[in-house]
Amino acid sequence: MKKYIWLVVSGAIILVIGAFLLGRYALPNTGLASLPKPELSSGQRGELGIDKNVNESTIDQYLGRADAVYRDMRMLKDPAEYEAIGGDSYLSGFVNGFEVVPLPYIVNVTGLPEPVGDTYIGKTLFTNTNGVYTPNYKESMEVLEALFPKDKVIFLMCGGGGYAGMMRQMLIALGWDADKIYDVGGYWYYEGPNKVEVKRVSADGKTVYDFYKVPYHDINLYTLTENK
């Protein structure tokens, strides 16, 4: 009887200690169970492709997932004048965990707001003609799959949400799973705790951009084999 009581008490103590350690040292919540299915916002945000549930206001809940990649689609300095619509042509900051992959080097950009003018109009990995994406290089698809792995959840962001929406449309058209791709909107509207500031005012009062902080994927088209 005493042995039985000792075993019960010992077991209870182990459970209490285990619960304490689990609460103190639990693995971080990856959010796997709580990640909703992609759903477009209403109105103009939906037209840009921004998600209703996973966006600038909620993205902090989904950062750091081992099964995901995070891509910011802006250029370091965009030729388009985004200041005309309240944005920044320079990459003024980013959400920690996102890596920059400039959309205008991936595919030709159309449909920008008239006040901002044109973005980069040089060579691109692909050409979009009315929703048909043609590779311009033999390695185009290989590069795309390396930057946007098909077996991962993909979170896309940019300045205002447009570039991210264009990238989502392109990936879906080329065979990526639409249920694993989220346009989370624009950095310009993000107010969370994971903001990494790139833009600052120097000691002599000048505006400078610390691009050394930016995790940047260089798409060097000149090393690729152009399709004839």
Secondary-structure map with pairings?
Elements: H1 2-25, H2 43-48, E1 68-72, E2 93-95, E3 99-100, H3 103-106, E4 126-129, E5 132-135, H4 140-147, E6 153-158, H5 162-173, E7 181-186, E8 195-197, E9 199-201, E10 207-209
Parallel strand pairs: 1-3, 1-6, 6-7
Antiparallel strand pairs: 2-8, 4-5, 9-10
Report what the structure shows.
With 228 residues, the protein is an alpha/beta fold. Helix content is 24%, strand content 17%. The chain has 5 helices and 10 strands. Strands 3-1-6-7 form a 4-stranded parallel β-sheet, covered by helices on one side. Strand 6 (153-158), helix 5 and strand 7 (181-186) form a beta-alpha-beta unit. The termini are far apart.
Brief overview, please?
This protein is an alpha/beta fold and 228 residues long. The protein has helices at residues 2-25, 43-48, 103-106, 140-147, 162-173; strands at 68-72, 93-95, 99-100, 126-129, 132-135, 153-158, 181-186, 195-197, 199-201, 207-209.
Low-confidence stretches: 1-33
Measured between the Cα atoms of the first and last residue, the distance is: 87 Å
Count of alpha/pi helices? 5
For the sheet with most strands, the description reads: 4 strands, parallel
Rg on CA atoms, Å: 23 Å
CATH structural architecture: 3-Layer(aba) Sandwich
Provide the number of structural domains: 1
Mean pLDDT: 87
Number of strands: 10
Mind telling me the CATH class?
Alpha Beta
The coarse overall form would be globular
The computed structural class is alpha/beta
Order of helices and strands: HHEEEHEEHEHEEEE
Q: Kindly report the spatial arrangement of strands forming the biggest sheet.
A: 3-1-6-7
Beta-strand share of residues: 15-25%
CATH superfamily: Rhodanese-like domain
Into which percent range does the helicity of residues fall?
10-25%
CATH topology: Oxidized Rhodanese, domain 1
